């Protein structure tokens, strides 16, 4: 409990009203934005259009809101589905995974469903899932922990019955954002340590990473 006399009520009220006006101004700006002006979404659509239609794609994003946004506005002829921690489509995560990767999730495509070619997911599918039917992994946004990126790729690049090549496409932060966050720089440094100390059989973020063959 706090005594009201410890607070400058008039000043507090004035500051709260000022904050509310700021939030309303931000909301007005956000409501004016449209997916038609989203350059990053356009780049994603362009990248997907260049991938052979017989190659299945999984797109990873960190946030459920972004996954839902991509599912709503991504223009593609591919049959797609979205997975996040609050699915309310009437389909379970297991059901969607079987639709996407039936060869590695017996008994395969559920009755009454058809295969999907594009899966959009948060990191909820980054652990413990068999998604080897995919051939392309797209990291729409990067997690600060490189282990998360390794786990995402690891859902596809696993021991399997067949030889496979997995293509990885990483969306790096815009230059202005990177200047403030240094996300890419920090990731590169940590990934470099992983290559040197532990070793990896594949490149994770950049094609110029030096693999430790020992």
Which keywords apply here?
214 residues, alpha/beta, five-stranded parallel beta sheet, 7 helices, globular
Describe the strand arrangement of the main beta sheet, using strand numbers.
Answer: 2-3-1-4-5
Which structural class do the helices and strands define?
A: alpha/beta
What average pLDDT do the residues reach? Answer: 89
The percent range for strand residues is 5-15%
Question: Rough shape?
Answer: globular
Major beta sheet summary: 5 strands, parallel
pLDDT < 50 runs, ≥5 residues? none
- Secondary structure: helix percent: 25-40%
Count of helical regions: 7
Order of helices and strands: HHEHEHEEHEHH
The quaternary state of the protein chains shown equals single chain
Topology:
Elements: H1 9-32, H2 39-49, E1 56-60, H3 64-73, E2 80-83, H4 93-100, E3 118-121, E4 134-139, H5 146-154, E5 167-170, H6 175-181, H7 183-197
Parallel strand pairs: 1-3, 1-4, 2-3, 4-5
Give structural notes.
With 214 residues, the protein is an alpha/beta fold. It has seven helices and five strands. It has a five-stranded parallel sheet with strand order 2-3-1-4-5, sandwiched between helices. The longest helix is centred in the first third of the chain and has 24 residues, at 9-32. The N and C termini lie far apart (62 Å). The relative contact order is 0.11. The mean pLDDT is 89.
């Amino acid at each position: 409990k706090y005594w009201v006399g410890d607070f400058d009520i008039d000043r507090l009220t004035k500051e709260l009203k000022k904050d509310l006006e700021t939030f309303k101004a931000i909301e007005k700006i956000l409501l004016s934005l449209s997916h038609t002006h989203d350059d990053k979404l356009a780049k994603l659509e362009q990248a997907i259009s260049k991938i052979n239609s017989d190659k299945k794609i999984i797109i990873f994003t960190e946030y459920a809101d972004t996954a839902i946004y991509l599912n709503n506005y991504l223009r593609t002829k591919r049959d797609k589905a979205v997975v996040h921690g609050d699915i309310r489509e009437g389909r379970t995560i297991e059901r969607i995974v079987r639709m996407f990767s039936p060869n590695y999730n017996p008994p395969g495509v559920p009755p009454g469903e058809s295969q999907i070619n594009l899966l959009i997911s948060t990191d909820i599918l980054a652990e413990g899932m068999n998604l080897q039917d995919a051939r392309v992994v797209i990291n729409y946004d990067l997690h600060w922990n490189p282990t998360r990126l390794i786990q995402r790729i690891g859902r596809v690049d696993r021991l399997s019955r067949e030889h496979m090549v997995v293509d990885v496409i990483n969306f790096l932060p815009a230059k202005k954002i990177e200047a403030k966050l240094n996300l890419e720089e920090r990731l590169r440094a940590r990934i470099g340590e992983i290559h040197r100390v532990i070793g990896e059989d594949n490149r994770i973020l950049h094609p110029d990473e030096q693999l430790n063959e020992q």
